[in-house]
């Protein structure tokens, strides 16, 4: 039995793993004829509602573009935000330190939004039901992220470097250290609809597995274990 199915399994593996995302057609050798399976890589799912930063010092522009696009239905790409903030900002400082919350505030003002930074707790943010940009210290690396939701035990974060990730409250608060939470003060009704969504909670990275391996090679899991990531 093993010798019969081994070649078939090998063919399936090659077909699936060569298609990182999209539709995989499987046929020949199945009595039911051909059928197709939609395959989406783990990496693509992680970056479904957060833009992946394209430059070393662009986490600020990627984070802000993601906040507008995925939480306020105001679609804009990272490059346009980057170009605008860079052209209006202190370019020497930006090249050394990246964008600041003040750069973001000025950009949002030019786009017609009111925004500000507040010293509030995660519980207060959850009651307000709006996302916030903040800064975390990840092993000495200061980095902008979006807080997309939280509960008593965990925090849902959109990180332009690694995608959607869920941290324990203790782990996140250690990196966050009660930094300012930067929020948009307009269109709360729209933001609330995209805050604390179950779809994003299910995109979580578990046990850092996704950070240690080639994500495209795990596309097979979408076929073999649909229940683990189905939403």
UniProtKB/TrEMBL annotation:
Signal peptide segment: 1-21
Example of a GO biological process term: proteolysis
UniProt cross-references to Pfam families, sorted A to Z: Peptidase_C39 (PF03412)
Gene3D superfamilies: Cysteine proteinases (3.90.70.10)
Domain Peptidase C39: 53-183
Alphabetical keyword list: Signal
Transmembrane regions: none
GO CC, alphabetical: membrane
Record-linked InterPro entries: Peptidase_C39
GO molecular-function term, one example from the UniProt record: ATP binding
Protein name from the UniProt record: Peptidase, C39 family
Naturally occurring in which organism (per UniProt): Colwellia psychrerythraea (strain 34H / ATCC BAA-681) (Vibrio psychroerythus)
